[in-house]
Amino acid sequence: MRLKDLFNFKRKTRPIKPSQEMISEQELSELWTQCPSCKTTIYTAELKNNLMICSKCEHHFRLSAYDRIEHLVDADTWEEINCSIKPSNPLKFVDLKKYEDSIEAAKKRSGSNEAIVTGVGKIDGFETAFGIMEFPFLGGSMGSVVGERIARLCELAIERKLPVIIISSSGGARMHEGLFSLLQMAKTSAILSKLRENKLLFLSVLADPTYGGVSASFAMLGDIIIAEPKAKIGFAGPRVIEETIRQKLPKDFQTSEYLLEHGQIDLVISRKKLKETVTQLIKLHSKTLYGNPTNELNGFADIISQPLVSSSV
Q1: 257 lies in some domain
Q2: In terms of residue numbers, what domain contains 248?
């Protein structure tokens, strides 16, 4: 071969065919999640194993209702109730699409058939009534079904003498139902007063975000109100308030830490410690304590002796 032929020589190559097993761009993007707080890129599987908490800055991502159930409720004790109660459209509401179509889209997106999942299960052996809101379902908005499910959950708790835990994550009342939605504020508040008359414990847990008619009713009526770190909690949004009062709000306004500092909630607890804390609170208020209260309360004393708010929670 002559020297000039070396430059004209082209290697014969076989074109690479795309494998049928190659993952799509969407699947590839789902492998990694960026933390909105510290901007760290996190392997999604590790994030899920850590209860959707950033391992670097402790930012709490939103957690679905069924993931919360898996975390809080003892294995093989969960019994969902009231799931047959479904919304109607009494106002024949239509915006960009029919209310019924919005409901169907929300079901596919969230995996739930309403903005709250209710049921009974055991937490560390204590039978408890749970109501857990599902934010991806129309922003966790409270319509007539949410109010009815909470009312029936509390009625069951009264009948069976159970403590109640409701975890809120909601943008407020559901505009699609108008006045029917606003009536749920009074309805849920009324049933919680009956719960109190029967001397039953109601623990309200506030997750990000908790706003509007939910924060103005049952979410802030707990005997003990617990919030996750940095959760946004309020009635109207900060921009609306600033435009109304024409004043600049504090930087940490409407965060759980701000509300704790100003006496509006009782505890700010990391999601990792929530089950332990709730269990100790139920033990503290349980009649079964009277036999040997000292042993049961030692763990809770350890919890409340620690700082309630810190960068490590």
Answers
A1: yes
A2: 63-304
Q: Please answer whether residues 146 and 186 qualify as being in contact, where contact means their C-beta atoms are separated by less than 8 angstroms.
A: no
pLDDT of residue 288: 52
Q: What is the DSSP letter of 249?
A: P
Boundary of a domain, candidates 39, 61, 83: 61
Please tell me the distance from the alpha carbon of residue 47 to that of residue 53, in angstroms, as a whole number: 6
Q: What is the mean pLDDT of residues 108-124?
A: 96
Question: Distance between terminal CA atoms of the chain?
Answer: 73
Please indicate, yes or no, whether residues 115 and 215 belong to a single structural domain of this protein.
Answer: yes
Report whether 265 contacts 226 (CB < 8 A): yes
Position 224 pLDDT exceeds 70: yes
One domain, residues 145 and 38: no
Give yes or no: residues 93 and 156 share one domain. yes
pTM for this one? 0.85
Write the Ramachandran bin of 77: left for phi over 0, alpha for psi from -120 to 50, otherwise beta.
alpha
Residue 303 or residue 197, greater confidence: 197
Beta strand 267-268 pairing with 224-227: parallel
Alpha helix stretches (DSSP H) within the chain: 3-8, 25-30, 44-49, 65-72, 99-110, 144-160, 179-197, 212-215, 238-245, 256-261, 271-284, 293-304
